[in-house]
Amino acid sequence: MLTQALLVGLVAMFGKMDNQFGESFFQRPIVLCPLTGLVLGDLPMGLAVGGALEAMFLGSIGFGAYVPPDEIIGGVLACSFAITLGEGPETAIALAVPIASLAVSIKSGFYSIMSVFARLSERYAEKGSVRGVYATHFLIGGIPALCYGLICGLAFYFGADAVKAVIEAVPDFVFNGLTVAANILPALGLAMLGRLVLSRELVIWLFAGFLMSSYLGVPILGVALFAVVIGMVQFNVLGLAGTGQPEVAEGDDEDDF
């Protein structure tokens, strides 16, 4: 159990260190949950939980002073508890919402503390100390990652039995209601994401994908590959447009005068 708790903490640290090396989206549930399932010996369940939680957290984006639910702590702990207790993705989704919402206070606290290091970095920059700026940069990323690892590791080590007792004490009708609500959350996440990215120019492709899947029977992978091709053509990824030589009008040089 101690080894598993240590590995779960390392997975959470890995997710929190994402912004330290560029935005690679390692902190998303679709990455962290399979890793959690791998270290706990149940990769298929980790993949299933990761896909379900990723759909739920798609629309969870911070705007201004709003801090969204923490998908790292919520995803890692919900997936680890579901695997340990032998439950399915529905249980993981039901657990992820309160855990991620509770972790918001932890994230907000880190933002307040890290502002001190930001001012320290500005002082080093004014002095021209490159090493000082580098050091504060890694402290700003390393300290929260270490704390996230400790929180997830300790919560998994001491909280599995408590979570199991709570799940067993909840009446069946309440848990069934949570399961239904959890199944609705992925659709809500996709709808929120659609409001952010859809426009009049792109909405036609949404209906095209729906028609391909519903009426033509094209599987989801086929629709996704078709979307990749359309995107490459739309944004000229291969640089095929404009490769020809421009035509030059023939005429005497004296025509320019």
Structural overview:
There is one protein chain. With 257 residues, this protein is an all-alpha fold. It has 2 domains: 2-197, no CATH class; 198-241, no CATH class. The chain is 73% helix and 0% strand. The chain contains 9 helices and no strands. Helix 2 (29-39) runs parallel beside helix 4. The protein is globular. The N and C termini lie far apart (89 Å). The mean pLDDT is 80.
Features:
257 residues, mainly alpha, transmembrane helix, phosphotransferase system
Shape: globular
SSE string, helix = H, strand = E? HHHHHHHHH
The rounded Rg comes to: 25 Å
Mean pLDDT: 80
Low-confidence stretches are none
Domains (count): 2
Strand content: under 5%
Largest sheet entry: none
InterPro entries: GatZ_KbaZ_carbometab, PTS_IIC_man
Transmembrane segments: 92-117, 138-158, 178-198, 205-230
Main location: membrane
Protein name: PTS sugar transporter subunit IIC
